[in-house]
Amino acid sequence: MSLQPRPGLLDITPYKPGASAPEGAVKLSSNENALGCSPKAAEAYRMATQSLHLYPDGGATKLREAIAEAEGVDAARIVCGAGSDELLQLIGRGYLNPGDKVVQNEYGFLVYSLVAKQCGAELVSAKENAYRADVDTLLEAAGEDAKIVFLANPNNPTGTYIPESEVRRLREGLPEDTLLVLDSAYTEFVDAPDYASGMAMVDEFANTVVTRTFSKIHGLAGIRLGWMYGPSEIVDVIHRVRGPFNVNLPAIEAGTAAMGDREFLKLSKTHNDDWLAYFHQQLGGLGYDVTPSVCNFVLVHFSDTPGQTAQDAERFLAERGLVVRGLAPYKLANALRISIGEADANRRVVEALEAFKAQAA
């Protein structure tokens, strides 16, 4: 008899990242930082190559202290990981049992589904309102027995957010023993006055954690680095299920340098603000339905008409060296997610979609 994996694992569809760009093409499928990463982070990474024979600090102490200083929080309540993806999986490993209920919003990040299925838990998706998470439907879905509620705020792939008051209403409406995971991967891009990352809520409410990443505004997607801030009891559990050296030495050094480079963050934010507005204005002017985004990407909707669908547009863009993200796995088959790129790439996207609309008319 052949060796069999745990029941349910073979039903999981592995996560498919944004497509890579062939030589000469531009990749706009993974929401990477168009400006690269901080020069200080790159130099710290290079310097770390002189110490590759050494084990990293298993507690990532230097990095946690840099994060704590920048964010004004307690370093002891920070856990670092190989991207926020790993931390989401560690949360599942630490708290989910087969049959437990996990809740997400309708177009929530695909990793939440993977976390639930890997642990044998039941995933329930709550309907959104105009591509925004809806607290009422989340509370209804959670009921009295949800073990974990995942909320990406802002959300990927829609680019939308809900205000701090609504996040608080969600936490206050959930049972005290339901863990609320606020995935704030894109928080640095948002300056709306009614938005908050959720960090303060961790100090005010039990069973609430925030996950953050270095992959987006910091431009360090290639080294896989993220962090979580939570109550001491939950942090202790995550330490017990993570690997002893889950963050490598160059990542610790690069992340520490990145946290201190506020100028690079400012440049990245300014670039994104300018070109996000450009996409909304230009694509909206061409007649495309673009969901209002506060992130470093836009969600563009297409027609059901043959020759004018999202799949047709994706192929049209690819033929012109522009690789974007199709969203069929998110049940958004007639939409594309397009990352903010460098200036020339952004202009090429608009020109290509103008040509697509013209030839489809």
UniProtKB/TrEMBL annotation:
It catalyses: L-histidinol phosphate + 2-oxoglutarate = 3-(imidazol-4-yl)-2-oxopropyl phosphate + L-glutamate. It holds the Pfam family Aminotran_1_2. Its cofactor is pyridoxal 5'-phosphate. It comes from the Bacteria. Pathway: Amino-acid biosynthesis; L-histidine biosynthesis; L-histidine from 5-phospho-alpha-D-ribose 1-diphosphate: step 7/9. One of its GO terms (biological process) is L-histidine biosynthetic process. The modification N6-(pyridoxal phosphate)lysine is found at residue 216. One of its GO terms (molecular function) is pyridoxal phosphate binding. Signal peptide: none annotated. InterPro entries: Aminotransferase_I/II_large, HisP_aminotrans, HistidinolP_aminotransfase, PyrdxlP-dep_Trfase, PyrdxlP-dep_Trfase_major, PyrdxlP-dep_Trfase_small. Keywords: Amino-acid biosynthesis, Aminotransferase, Histidine biosynthesis, Pyridoxal phosphate, Transferase. Residues 26-353 form the Aminotransferase class I/classII large domain. Its EC number is 2.6.1.9. Homodimer. HAMAP family: HisC_aminotrans_2. Belongs to the class-II pyridoxal-phosphate-dependent aminotransferase family. Histidinol-phosphate aminotransferase subfamily. This is Histidinol-phosphate aminotransferase. It comes from Marinicauda pacifica. The gene is hisC.
